[in-house]
Write a structure and sequence with these properties.
Elements (H helix, E strand, L loop, with lengths): L1 H45 L3 H47 L1 H14 L4 H25 L9 H24 L6 H24 L3 H29 L2
Helix pairs in contact: 1-2, 1-5, 1-6, 1-7, 2-3, 2-4, 2-5, 3-4, 5-6, 6-7
């Protein structure tokens, strides 16, 4: 029975981890779409020069991807350091207070619904097999052999941002100047609708409301930068 419980909990943990990664990827792509779309639309409102738009859009894409990667690297590194500290603390407590740790493990299984006798039996059996693994799984919900890699997180974040940012950058460069902005607004609207729908599906939220929020927020950002670009272009700064 305990093996079945552990299997179900491990399956739930893995599924949750995958959903978190997928949600982060979708949000990263959405950030890329909005950020670079706002930049290129603002520049296009001030100038018809394809080279200016390409330069500004490329700079925004690279800067955004690197910023996302660095931010994710720092965040995950801090999380990993915390996890390592918790693991070291747990190892110390097991070495110095084994009886107290055994009682703590039994209490955890009692809270999960096992009787006192069964919880103590399970705790003793798991402790005899691998005390450290039993405690970090039950108390910390961590796998010492599978801690989050900050480099993997950084690369995934950068790729997610790039995958979204490349859409407005390519779209705005393809059509002639006369229809460049309407085509870009239309393409970005579709892209935002897709990321909004995916985000809602991953998070289990209402698709209509979530998609509308993403679309309105993105289009509002583009409208603001378009207005600023138009104003700067007219002033001639």
């Amino acid at each position: 029975m305990q093996e079945i419980i552990n299997h179900l909990e491990e399956h739930k943990k893995n599924a949750g981890s995958k959903l978190n990664w997928l949600r982060a990827a979708v949000l990263g792509a959405n950030d890329g779409i909005v950020s670079v779309a706002s930049i290129v639309v603002g520049v296009a409102a001030a100038s018809d020069s394809r080279s200016f738009i390409l330069t500004a859009g490329t700079a925004g894409l690279v800067a955004g991807a690197l910023s996302m990667a660095m931010g994710e690297y720092v965040s995950v590194s801090a999380q990993r350091d915390t996890e390592k500290a918790l693991l070291a603390k747990e190892r110390f407590e097991l070495e110095n207070y084994p009886e107290a740790e055994l009682e703590e493990l039994a209490k955890i299984y009692q809270v999960k619904g096992l009787s006192e006798a069964t919880a103590h039996a399970v705790a003793k059996e798991l402790t005899a097999r691998d005390a450290f693994a039993a405690h970090v799984e039950a108390e910390l919900r961590l796998d010492p052999e599978d801690l989050t890699n900050p480099w993997h997180a950084a690369i995934a974040s950068a790729l997610a941002f790039f995958s979204g940012a490349i859409v407005p950058l390519v779209v705005i460069l393809l059509p002639p100047a006369s229809v460049r902005l309407p085509v870009t607004f239309a393409a970005v609207t579709v892209a935002l609708a897709i990321t909004g729908t995916l985000s809602a599906q991953v998070g289990g939220a209402h698709k209509g409301r979530a998609t509308l929020r993403v679309m309105v927020g993105g289009l509002l950002a583009m409208a603001v930068t378009f207005g600023i670009g138009k104003l700067v272009g007219q002033v001639g700064l």
